[in-house]
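Internal QA ticket QA-208
Title: Verify multi-chain structure generation after dependency bump
Assignee: T.L.

Test input:
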Amino acid sequence: MSRVGVVFGGSRGIGRAVSWLLAERGHRVVVVSRNVEAAQATADSLPGGEHVGLSCDVSREQEVQRAFETITKTCGPVGYLVNAAGINRDALLLRSKSEDMVSVLHTNLLGSMLTCRAALRSMLSKGGAIVNIGSVVGVKGNAGQCVYSASKAGLEGFTRSLAKEVASRSVRVNLVVPGLIRTDMTAGLKEEDAGRRIPLGRFGEPKEVAQAVLFLLESPYITGQVLLVDGGLRLVM
Ligand SMILES: NC(=O)c1ccc[n+]([C@@H]2O[C@H](COP(=O)([O-])OP(=O)(O)OC[C@H]3O[C@@H](n4cnc5c(N)ncnc54)[C@H](OP(=O)(O)O)[C@@H]3O)[C@@H](O)[C@H]2O)c1
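Actual output:
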């Protein structure tokens, strides 16, 4: 059955790969990012028709509300929600600026809470599925990434709790936890050095994470689950 799938952070990287797989499956995709041209360009490039690109800063409550009003008015009720919008501002805690801490927490953690709350308004009557994107750094911790790690660890508790809250209404909520994936976010890392630490010996591709996202969106009996897609990185961190 074709559904409306909303992908925050869908313009690039992991979110873009998720948007592609959803479109290939015949779903109508709403690609959301702050940069509306990038969101629209990705929406236009997807297979199938009638995909939509929208601008929304996920850290701003009113923008999120307005985005969901537009989506339900133009596309109908939301069946799938994927929260792939995320930023990092890596620094040792002693050197971290307060405004960067707030940006990271508001984008990565509060942003997903706001989109989930807004999406639930249509999902509670018809059912649906949500996948949030965490990070292996949220599971294992990493020096220089205290705030990012906290935002991603927070998503784990949030995902499990929300899964309990909404299971009786046929809404499932799961977390995909990537390791090191080849996107703009990791463009500054030396892949030869970092890749050597990963048991599978290389960075992951966005599509390899997207496949796990799609699996969880489509699996009717899985909720509250945390699925690592990290080439084994967690085992050696
Ligand atoms: N790449 C990795 O190795 C890796 C590993 C673990 C976890 N993750 C997580 O996976 C998710 C996707 O990462 P990625 O590597 O695909 O990153 P990316 O290539 O940098 O893409 C980030 C996406 O999020 C959007 N975005 C950023 N801030 C936003 C905001 N405030 N509101 C709305 N959209 C926003 C960006 O578009 P705009 O800039 O136009 O808004 C873009 O579409 C993130 O949550 C990240 O933390 C990534």
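Spot checks passed. The longest strand covers residues 171-178.
Status: verified.
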